[in-house]
Amino acid sequence: IAVEAVVKLAALMAVGMFVVFVVSGGVGPTLQAIDASPISRWDTGADRWATLIFLSAAAFICLPRMFQVMVVENSDERHLATASWAFPLYLLLISLFVVPIAVAGLSVSPEGSNPDLFVQTVPLAFDRNALAMLAFLGGFSSATSMVIVAAIAVSTMVSNHVVMPIWLSLREGRAALSGDVRHVVILSRRLSIAGILLFGYLYFVLSGGGAALAAIGLVSFTGVAQVLPALLGAVFWRGATRTGAAVGISVGFAVWVWTSFLPSFGEGGILTPAIYAHGPFGIVPLRPHALFGIEGLDPLVHSVFWSMILNAGSFLAFSLLSAQTPLERLQGARFVNVFRHSGGTRGWSGGVVEAEDLLMMSQRLLGATDAQALFKAEARRQDKSGSLPDVTPAFVERLERELAGSVGAATAHAMIAQITGGVSVSVEDMMRVADEAQQILEYSSQLESKSRELENTADQLREANEKLVALSFQKDNFLSQVSHELRTPMTSIRSFSEILMDGESMTAEERQKFSQIINGEAVRMTRLLDDLLDLSVLESGQVVLNRQDDTLDAVLDRAFVATGQLGAKATIAVDRHGTDEKVPLRTDCDRLAQVFINLISNAGQYCDAHEPRLRVHVHEVDGRHVVDFIDNGSGIPEESQAEMFEKFARADDHRAGGGAGLGLAICREVMKRLGGEVDYVAGLGGAAFRVTLPDAEGAVAGRDR
After folding, report:
1. What is the mean pLDDT of the chain?
2. Which residue intervals define the domain Histidine kinase in the entry (predicted)?
3. What are the phi and psi torsion angles at 68 (to 5°)?
4. Which of 185-194, 366-375, 458-467 has the lowest mean pLDDT?
5. Gap between the Cα atoms of 515 and 492, Å rounded
6. How far is CA 443 from CA 296, 434, 439, 475, in A?
7. What is the SS3 assignment for 217-253?
8. What pLDDT does residue 654 have?
9. What kind of fold does domain 448-538 have according to CATH?
10. pLDDT-derived band at 176, boundaries 50, 70, 90
């Protein structure tokens, strides 16, 4: 096909150069001849010109032969980069001499001659038989290449999307390893090609055979453009439905047949002159060239206008009116967001798959040589010495793409699914079951309980989604808080450092004051970084616990001393019962004290009572010792209680300004590693936190983790 394209271009340019430099005598005389020709006075009309441009663009996207060349037979996407400049250049070169040849042809040919033959009749008129033969070969190359590519493309579509799915459904799962798959594919394509040629010849005979090739092409372009709305909708609109596409294409195709295809046979052919004048059965608004009473339009413009308007309108209307099935929603998301999912590899749901089975099936579809080359290349890619690769999801997907070029995507997927074991639970089957279940749930009163379960599941999913959104929002707030917390001390350190550097006349007291500020900001920044590092180590499970023997009252004493809540400097009054705190411990007491320190600090910082007071109550719950830390404040808002132990969470009130939201998350992770728990207990007065102490087994388990 590529060689024929070069031959066609060379022949046309040879004839063109002959016309310009031999017949006309140069570029200048050629331009003068064009100005004097009736062609220069030919007014196409803006509406027809715009229609021709639209049809050309639609044909470029929708014609089967273009898809065959650009997609099916394209082995490397990088070739499209070359085609992006080579194809427009080819069109420019092949169109360069069209007008000069047309002018020369009109001057040497009788009136009414077929313009498609000018490329050959011009050399013959000047006795250039060799050039005429070259032109004939170029025209023959052009015709055969169009027929070959179009026939292959259409026959592939027929076999892949019509014959093979029907044949597979009749075989009931025996197709993948049967020996007649390739025979069915080849036979269906041969019969399709024969049918295409037969229909082309019948059209030639019925239309009289006198129509210009361009006129026939415009009729074809208008017909194939009817898939354009559904094609663009499927790629760019997730709301498109199968019903909308089917109705839109059907309506557009019907309008095209009535306004363009049937009239192409000429008046008196299939449609009688009475139909053109008065419409079918006397219905004037349905006249082929004046649909709905609009007259005076060019027939091509009229056909394209009404077919595309009604096609796109029906597609949009029925897509909006019809409900999408779950399968359509999944396909819409995948097609519209194709580049989001292109990097991943799909797996399959099946058992153990043997490479020999896949090779056997591939040989029957691709041929032994191509199939073995494909499997050997994959084996080399996997660094295997043999010729059979491991059956990985990536290889299965790659093999499916190769088979799709021979039998179509749907058929290839079905045949591979039969071998991999995924056919019994295919996506289509699951979606069909879901549709049936949805209808039953909507219209059957006997399944109300099942409907309530599904509603509860949907509520849970909605709550989970809302929680994820909230966590993402909290994370963003946390990152902003961390950057602020780091930037503030850094700014202070830098500012006061510059003051110290430039303050030659500064007193010793001022230097001491600024140095203390710098030290305090450094301590503040170090504390934040320590919290972040501590939480990261805890969550990753890399923490090493130092188990030791101690008593609960000793650990509590250290915690209160560390927080400064003992003596005259205490910010909150503490109620303790020493006799209840004589509980022996066998755990990492430093980590446990870290939890107590955090809870005591929170109480001292956030308790909003006029006279803050913290009560520490040690008792047993379900056979385990627990420590309750209860202040007399207003407590934590109910809407914040569910997420207070989450990372980055901060209570949404005016008292939450000081922390970064890591303290309780660290407490939760520490107690998890120790084998205990920390929870918020509502209804005990103020903010109440309960620490369930680890037992000996829990501590050992935590250290092993």
Report:
1. 78
2. 481-697
3. -60, -45
4. 366-375
5. 11
6. 53, 14, 6, 44
7. HHHHHHHHHHHHHHHHHHHHCCCCCHHHHHHHHHHHH
8. 47
9. Helix Hairpins (1.10.287)
10. very low
Token duo for residue 480:
């902003």
Top-confidence residue, 513 or 255: 255
CA-CA distance, 451 to 437, in Å (whole number)? Answer: 10
What's the CA angle centered on 470, arms 464 and 472, to 5 degrees? 105
CA distance 378 to 397: 12
CA distances for 657 relative to 139, 477, 481, 484, 660, angstroms: 82, 12, 10, 12, 8
- Of 14, 51, 259, 275, the closest CA to residue 135 belongs to 14
CA angle 38, 42, 48 (to 5 degrees): 155
Alpha-carbon distance values, 461 to 167, 324, 371, 447, 450 (Å): 41, 21, 45, 21, 17
The encoded tokens of residue 615 equal 């009560």
Percent composition of the chain: helix, strand, coil (DSSP 3-state, to 5): 70, 5, 25
What tokens were used for 282? 């006397």
Say whether 286 sits in a helix, a strand or coil. Answer: strand
Residues 95-134: b if buried by 16+ CB within 10 A, e if exposed = eebebbbbbbbeeebeeeeeeeebbbbbbbbeebeebbeb
Whether the Cβ atoms of residue 19 and residue 101 lie closer than 8 Å to each other: yes
Q: Which two tokens stand for residue 353?
A: 């798959």
Contacting residues for 234 by C-beta, under 8 A, at least 6 apart: 240, 245, 332, 335
Least confident of 239-248, 439-448, 638-647: 439-448
Residue the block writes with tokens 């040989």: 363
Average pLDDT over residues 339-354: 50
The set of long-range contacts for 80-85, using a CB threshold of 8 Å and a minimum separation of 24, is: none
Question: Per residue in 395-451, pLDDT tens?
Answer: 787 787 777 766 656 566 666 766 665 444 444 444 544 554 455 455 555 556 666
> 498: which 2 tokens?
């510059």
The amino acid at 697: E
Provide mean pLDDT across the span 315-339: 76
The answer for residues whose C-beta is within 8 angstroms of residue 648's C-beta and 6 or more apart is 471, 474, 475, 477, 478, 661, 662, 665
List C-alpha distances in Å: 697 to 450, 527, 703. 43, 33, 10
Strands 613-621, 573-575: pairing kind? parallel
With 90 as the cut, is the pLDDT of residue 373 above it? no
pLDDT tops 70 at residue 276 = yes
Least confident of 3-17, 99-113, 122-136: 99-113
Alpha-carbon distance of 584 to 413, in angstroms, equals 65
Architecture of domain 544-704: 2-Layer Sandwich (3.30)
Distances (CA, A) of 29 to 22, 35, 331, 573: 11, 10, 60, 110
* DSSP calls for 389-441: ----HHHHHHHHHHHHHHH-HHHHHHHHHHHHT-GGG-HHHHHHHHHHHHHHH
Cβ(664)–Cβ(649) under 8 Å?
Answer: yes
Question: Measured between alpha carbons, how far is 103 from 295 in angstroms, rounded to an integer?
Answer: 33
Domain extent listing, the chain: 344-443, 448-538, 544-704
Q: Say yes or no to pLDDT of 365 above 80.
A: no
Strand partners, 585: 550
For residues 83 and 244, the answer to whether their CB atoms sit within 8 Å is no
677-680, strands of its sheet edge to edge: 573-575, 613-621, 624-631, 688-692, 677-680
CA angle 443/448/450 to nearest 5° reads 110
Mean pLDDT of 171-182: 55
